[in-house]
Amino acid sequence: MLFRNVERVWIAQAPAKVNLGLRVLSRRPDGYHELDTVIARISLCDTLIVEVDSSPQLFLHVRRSYPHALRSEQIPETSENLVLRAAELLRRRSGQLFGARMTLIKRIPSAAGLGGGSSDAATTLATLNRAWGLNYPRDELLRLAAELGSDVPFFLANTVFARCTGRGELVQPLSTRIRLWLVVAKLSGGLSTAAVYRGCQPTGGRASLEPMLLALQRGDVPAVARLLRNDLQNSAEKLSDDILSLKAEFSQLSVWGHQLTGSGSAYFGICRSQRQAWECSVKLKSRGLSAVWSVSTCA
Ligand code: C5P
Predict the structure, then answer these.
(1) 38-49 confidence digits (pLDDT tens)
(2) 14: β partners
(3) Is 220 a catalytic residue?
(4) Can you tell me which atom of ligand 1 is nearest the CA of 118?
C-alpha cells in the first residue's frame, strides 16, 4: 500500500481487483461458500485521505469521480460504508481516543465484483494503523480485515497476485513478474454478491487452478487468458441481461480472453498490450459504453 504523509494528512490508494480464476467448491454451514480463487490487483484506484482529529469522532466525506454512466451511484457516508466500519472496528479494538476526518474519492464502481469497498476497508485499517501510531501487527490487522469481509485480507496483503481460499480470506501471495493489460467495463446496474452466490452451483471436489498458477509463474499471458474461469458467471448471467450484453461486446474484441470479475457486474478482457487495451476501451466507448477503463495489474 502506498502512503504519503503530508503535515499529518495521510493519502493512500485503494486498488481494485479482478478474479482470474474463481472456483466455488461447496456451500458451507455458515452460509458462505468455500472458494479457490486467483486474484490480481489492478491500477483502477480509489483514494483515501485521512487527517487525525483530536476529538474522538470519525467523519467520512465521499467524492464521486465516475464516468457519466455511473452518475447515479450512491455511496453512503454512514456506517454502511466499509471505511467507517473499518475505522470504528480498529478504534474499538485498540481503545484509540483520537478520531479521524476521512475523504474517500471513489472511482471504483460498487456492486461490481471489483472489490472497491473491501479495498477501501483494507486501506482504512492500514492507514489509521499508521496515522494513529498503533503499530498493530499485520496478523492482528488481517483478523480485523476478515471480520469486515471475505475480500478485505487480500487487499491488506502486500501482493499483486494471490490465491485465496476458505471463504476468500486465506491469502497466499503469488510471486510472478507477469503484467497483464486489461480492459474493464460495466453497465449501470450492480449485482448483489449474496444473490449471485445463492444462484450458483458449487463444483464439488477441489477443481484445480494449478494450470492458471503455472501460467502466471511462467509469465504466459495467452495461457492465463485461455484459462480464465469464473463459477459465478452463470448465476450472474441469469440475474442480469447486462452480463450477456457485455459478454457479446467483448466477443467482438480481439482480446485473448474475457469474463466476469467476482460476482459482477463488471466484466474484463485480457489484452495483448497496453495499446490494445486502450484501443479496446475506445471501441467499447464508441459502441455507447461509458464506464470503461484500460488498466494493468499493479506494477
Ligand atoms: O464476505 P462478504 O461480506 O464480502 O460477503 C457478502 C456475501 O456474499 C455473504 O453474505 C455471502 O452471502 C456471500 N459470500 C458467499 N461465500 C463467500 C463470500 C461471500 O456466499 N465465500
Answers:
(1) 999 999 999 999
(2) 46
(3) no
(4) 4
